[in-house]
Amino acid sequence: MSKEPPAPIPRLTVITLGVNDIRASIAFYDALGFSRRLKVTGETVAFYDTGGPVLALFPWDQLAVDAKLPDHPRPSTFRGMTLAWNCRAREEVDAVLVFAVSKGAALLKAAHETDYGGYSGYFADPDGHPWEVVVAPGIDVGEDRRVHLAE
After folding, report:
1. pLDDT tens sequence across 115-151
2. What residues does the VOC domain cover (predicted)?
């Protein structure tokens, strides 16, 4: 009787965003303060250290081809997912939203008290990718910039 191989360990390592103008998107994420790595890739692809999974930027049409998905029609708004920028305090949420908008983001929703006891607002990057900026109960941000979840 053959033994089943062990299941692989699940991990989320990279989030790749399809972008319309890679040069503009690189400038935006640089301005937000994310640390770009592997700059030898030039404007083919950009990788950012986020303190957790890597954030990658790749031209939208090329990403669609790579994933064998249609390039058209492109959704112009909500795509069924958001990115999150967890903060340590409500004041940090407000500051991040103001900062992101000053760097070219569009404010989608002003910060507000949530029904689960948190504080949250949303901005969109230049390609419309929505980011939630949030303080949430049970989710802490450590000195290491990593998110730590309560048990």
Report:
1. 999 999 999 999 999 999 999 999 999 888 888 888 7
2. 11-136
Report helix, strand or coil for 136: strand
* Residue range 76-151, CATH number: 3.10.180.10
DSSP string, 47-82: EEE-SSSEEEEEEHHHHHHHTT---SSPPSS--S--
Q: What three-state secondary structure class fits 21?
A: coil
Report phi then psi at 76, rounded to 5.
-95, -15
CATH architecture assignment, domain 1-74: Roll (3.10)
**Residue 58 is encoded by which pair of tokens?**
């790749």
Tens-place pLDDT, residues 45-74: 999 999 889 999 999 999 988 888 887 887
Reported confidence tier of residue 77, pLDDT bands at 50, 70, 90: low
